[in-house]
Amino acid sequence: VSLGLLGFAIPADVAKDAMRQLDLYGKVRRPYIGVVLLSLTTERALFECKRTFGSKIADGIRNGLLVVDVEGAPAKRAGLMAGDVVTGVDGKPADTARDIVERVQSVGEEMRVD
What we know:
It contains 4 helices and 7 strands, in the order E-E-H-E-H-E-H-E-E-E-H. It is an alpha+beta fold. The N and C termini lie far apart (38 Å).
């Protein structure tokens, strides 16, 4: 795909999966959790969390992700709420939103949030 002077390469496996989904569903389905997250790895983030959510944030927490907002059905069904702190997924540590995105692989997949 090219947009003016910018070009983007799409890996063949991603393109094949998109084509398969278009044939099956008429659209490309992407997995999502349905939360807005804030990394707790910086002092600024910790300050903002304590200011916003007060005593919900334990003083000893120095890593993980704060659930700032729940916007989607998967997170609501799992019982996630604003103010929760996610420290891992399926037993693996999560300090950034990217850590979680990399673990969400397919639509309908279940995962354990720590």
